[in-house]
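Page header: ASSEMBLY MODEL / two components / 677 residues total.
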Amino acid sequence: MTPDDATPFSAGFLHPLRPEMQHTSGTMTRDELETMVRVHQAEVHRYVRYLGAESSAVAEDLVQETFLAVFRSPEPPVARDERQQSAWLRGIARNLFLEHCRRARTSPVKADSASLERAEATWSNEFLREGDGFDYKEALRECLASLDGRSREVLDLRYGQGKSRSEIAGLLEMTEDGIKALLRRLRASLAECVRRRLAG
Amino acid sequence: MDVSDERDRLIDVLLHEELGGEPPPDLAERILRAVGRPSGGRDTPVPPRPDRSVGPAAPAARASRQRWVVPGLSAATVTLAVLCGVLFASRPAGPQAGPIPRGTSVSTGDETWHIRLGHRGYCRLEVAPRSSLRVDGQDRAEEVYLEQGGVECDVDRGVGAFAVRTEDGVVTVTGTRFSVTMLDEMAKTGEKGGVAMAGKKLLVKVMMGAVLMTGAWGTTELKAGEEGGTVTGILASKGDTWIGVRPEGKDEADPFLPAWKGGLPAAGGGFDKDTLALIKTLVIGSKVKLVWKTTEDHPRIVSIEMLSLPEKKPEPAVAEKPEGEGEKVAVAEKRHRHGDAEAPRGEAEKPRPEGERVAAVEKKALPAEGEKVAHAEPEKKAPPHREADPAQKKGTVIGVVADKKIGESVCWIEVKSTDKDAPLERYYPRHIAGKEGGGPDYEMVKLFKKAKVNDWVRIDWVFEERRRAIKMTIQSQ
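Prediction written out in full:
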């Protein structure tokens, strides 16, 4: 819906992607940048963590650099559609992440262009599914609710309480490798559960 | 990584958010600062100032502050509430002053002043125009006493402590970025950032890190995304689970809810029982001093101090009650004045003696409420609509869908009713309790998604912090 489609009910409506955002050349205004940041920063942050940013600090730096790159670009996005803007931002984030991995020799994450392209395909096709990932997260919540007690306990210890694998292993009287494998199996089963729910 | 690795990492990230309560941070202010202020800040280097140098800011000085916003694990991170709206409108001018000794008072006049305190200037203050403060404290425990106005603080981690004292309380920090504002009762609200209410005495907003707000009520921790402060005013209205306080100098009451205690409702979680019991004893029309903190976008009661009972004729709750409601105003007033028949154990309502300070209902940081909210998109560009009136508790609307927003952290539908004079109203799904905080009523969310703009809808709603749709029917156009 744009101001051109204004009806009496939409008086005063301001869409985040105003027509004046359609630049073919020149820089963005600060207001336009702020709008873009507020609309997309959560997804960009989640995306760089998904790519493999090894800490919150690195993720935040990458998010900032992504939007600064947008602001300084001589050709800001011309897309009206939020999804197209989002895809464009993810492309910048991927490039910055790749550069980060190459620069940070001690980074535990190894990445190359091909692997990042595959990551983008999974993100776009399986998570976003032409939306903003809401359906995926909704399905994940439903799948979490269907887990048995022990599985949920392990996930709560790891993600809810932030315990390390060794701590969880001690609590559950298992080996650390066993916990690692268990967590991976649980994530795989959740992924499959989500896939089935979204397909059904 | 192969596809299974990618799915694994996706689920891992989402689980951290869903179970770990780790919403993405709000980096907007940090990013906007990095691109420079509207008044033309440039990213030019500035020679370092000696400790305690005081003086109005030059343009380059503001740019140097941008360098102090070091990303990542080092010091400050972003974003301050600029409630008075003037902190970013400063103009540079004036001579530089030399170091200032402890005990010195500073009055800024019409300009913004920059002050660096402590070892290598680990505390950087931007003092708003028409502010006054006094420099106190000691080495590595710097402190200022803010008498009036506002100060924006940027404190390096791992160097020392810093505190802002005010008449109403103390804000202490060991490394974060926040703002403290002392407002006069008739001060105007600012537009930038979070909740801002006129008539507040002390207002603290934290965008990253955490601060401790301490006063006679105890200590409250404010974390990133939270605000807190004090307000003095008249208890204008109340319900079982909320109160409306009209700050001095304002015509409208601001709603406050009790804090959420415990976890899930199924596990015994709910509104703080002490506060609920306290609300029952309060007398409408009393003058109260309230300490509040915003959690998940709503001001919540930390403590209430009854300053004085109502005058001979307490203010009626008429203004807060909508016309046509089934509950008559006179009956409601009578109930409030003479006790609630539904009070536990049949106790009559007993107003507290004047000046009695209510024990703090919170002595530590409030736990996160069961309703998790991921990073919420500020609705800065939303069309105008009326804020829900807390006194109108339920109703039915028939109208046309004007707008809607369905997202992972924001979900509402806006309806223009058939009443031509009625403003746009926004409706949200209810929160359904469940494990790990529950979530929105997904059935209602599905209906919101199904409804299209210009569809006719009928919505039965109740007021629970906002108008919540409990039943919705979509009719053909």
